[in-house]
Design brief:
This protein is of the alpha+beta class. The chain has one domain. The chain is about 25% helix and about 35% strand. The strands form three sheets. The chain has a nine-stranded antiparallel beta sheet with strand order 3-4-5-6-2-7-12-11-10, with helices on one face. It has a two-stranded antiparallel ribbon with strand order 1-13. The chain has a two-stranded antiparallel ribbon with strand order 8-9. The chain is globular and about 75 Å long.
Length: about 290
């Protein structure tokens, strides 16, 4: 059985009264579960319906993702043979669609999300215990069905944010208003006919490695900033994904990894946002927070 442990939050970790969080996803990836069949999806769905996750949707599976450090592994050579049809990914949703469990043969995900921009983020201190309860329920279900327990190989914590662009603001100036690493000085290139080519904005991708006290790599944070549209309005999507291999000794609390990921993401977010936006979103530092 997994040891989930308890949520820990550093006393000096910043928090925001009005964070721009649109969705949070907590995910574990594991080795395929031998013997898992489509009928088990329905049976597990019956269990979840008793706790309010009453709607079901079939989705395509999420491809396996591995964070590899050091020497790259040689590509695996595949041989094609007759196999069963791959199982889908199934969504189990609450009636208001704010809470969501996703299950596929090698992954379990718990999400809190806004719906059409509506909803109040409850904070990770509320979302993580819900993940624990649902994940433990899934493990109990596997045991009752005589199926193997989860053999976790990767863990992932993701924050997805939606940042508004003002009506008469260019993406370039919106980036500068929000992100401390973006200059407000337009990069303009004059053309021969008197017109000019002015920098606007596009996609930004950054990667950071989290290292332990001994310098060994533990995980990565993948940051993506993207100019986009939502409900016919211009927005900026900011995603921060903390992902790493689960190679901890047996008995190590799983939530220690997610607590570490939360701290790393929050401190990175704190460093990349301007003082103006910190004020607008109500940045504070407290001993207990979300």
């Amino acid at each position: 059985m997994l040891d989930f442990g308890k949520i820990r939050r550093p006393d000096n970790l910043p928090q925001w009264e009005r964070p721009p969080v649109d969705e949070v996803a907590i995910s574990i990836q594991f080795n395929d579960i031998p013997g898992l069949k489509i009928v088990h999806y329905g049976q597990f769905g019956e269990r979840l319906s008793k706790v309010g996750l009453v709607q079901h949707e079939d989705k395509g599976p999420i491809n396996p993702t591995f964070e590899v450090f050091g020497k790259r592994v040689a590509p695996v050579q595949f041989q094609f043979q007759a196999v069963d049809i791959p199982l889908p990914r199934v969504w189990y949703l609450s009636n208001d669609k704010h809470r969501l469990v996703q299950v596929q043969p090698d992954r379990f995900v718990y999400n809190w999300r806004k719906v059409e921009g509506e909803g109040v983020y409850p904070g990770l201190n509320d979302v993580l215990p819900e993940f624990v309860i649902r994940c433990q329920s899934f493990q109990d279900f596997l045991t009752e069905q005589g199926l193997p327990q989860l053999s976790i190989n990767q863990c992932e914590l993701s924050y997805f944010n939606i940042l508004g662009v003002e009506e008469h603001e260019t993406y370039h100036h919106a980036f500068a208003r929000i992100f401390s690493f973006w200059s407000d000085e337009a990069n303009t290139n004059p053309l021969n006919d008197g017109s000019s080519l002015e920098q606007d904005a596009g996609n930004i991708a950054l990667t950071h490695i989290l290292r332990g006290n001994d310098g060994s790599p533990l995980a990565r944070i993948h940051t993506h900033v993207q100019a986009a549209e939502r409900s016919n309005k211009r927005v900026i999507r900011l995603s921060l994904v903390f992902r790493g291999p689960w190679t901890q000794p047996v008995g190590t609390p799983l939530l220690e990894f997610f607590a570490l990921g939360r701290e790393a993401i929050v401190r990175l977010f704190d460093s990349m946002i301007t003082e103006q936006m910190h004020r607008e979103w109500g940045r504070t530092i407290a001993s207990q927070g979300k």
